Amino acid sequence: MAEMSAQAPPDASSEPLIRFRKVNKAFGPKVIYSGLDLAVRAGESLTIIGGSGVGKSVMLKMLIGLLKVDAGSILFHGEDITKKTGVELGQVRQRIGMLFQGAALFDSISVGANVAYGLNEHFYKKMSDAEIAERVEWALSLVGLPGIEEMRPSDLSGGMKKRVGLARAIAIKPEVILYDEPTTGLDPINTTRINHLITGLKRTLNITSIVVTHDMASAFLISDRLAMVHRGRIIAEGTPEQFKAVTDQRVADFIHGRAPVNEDVATLLGG
Description:
The chain is built from eleven helices and ten strands. It is α/β, with parallel strands linked by helices. A hairpin with a 2-residue loop joins β4 and β5.
C-alpha cells in the first residue's frame, strides 16, 4: 500500500502559482486555520477535501480577498495578495474566477447580464458593448447553454444555474477558477456534466482549478492532486491513486464515509 506524505512538495522545476504560507484564521474563539501551508501548481486541478466546517470555502475566500487572513501570507505569482487592497486587489480578481456554491446569480437581471457582471466590473470602458456580448455568448457556449442570454435565473434548473455561474467565472478569461462545492444539490446527470466541464475547461483553456467538494467520486475523477484539511492544517496531499491507497486512518475514514471509532452517539447527533 502506497504511503502518502503529509506535505507533498510542489514540482521542484517551477515555483508554485499559488502558495499559502503559515496562514492563521479564526472567527472569534473558533480557530479555522493554524499554520496552513499549501502550494498549487500552474495548470493543475487540486481538490480540497475535509469534513464540514473545517474551512475549505474559507480558504477560497481568503485567496480572492473576501476574507482577510489573521496571520501568514498567500502568494500569487510570488506576490503577497494579503497586502493588496482596492485597485491592486481588483487586478488579482481579474485573474481568478469563482463558482460559488449556490451559483450566486442575481435574480433581478438576465442571464446575459449575470455572465457580463465581472466584465463590467473589471473591464469597465475597456470593452465595448459588442465585445461584452460576444464574450458572454462565448462563455455560455462553452458551458453548453448557447442562446439563453435573455432568460432569467428563476427560469433555470439547478444544474443550469451552476453552469451560468461557471460561464460568469470564465467570461473574464481567468488564470485560475475556484469551485466551491460545484456538484452539491445536483442529480447524477448534472453532476457528471459539471465534472466534465471542470476537466474540459482545464484542458481547453489551460486553467488552474481549485475545487472544494465532499463528493469523493467527483474528486477522484477531476483531480490531479488532492489535499485534506483537518484541525486547521493540511494533513495529507497526493494523487488520487495515493489517496485511494492511504494508510492514515483519518483520511481513510473520510474517504470511505466512516465515523471515527472514538466518536460517540452524542457527538454524531450533535450533542
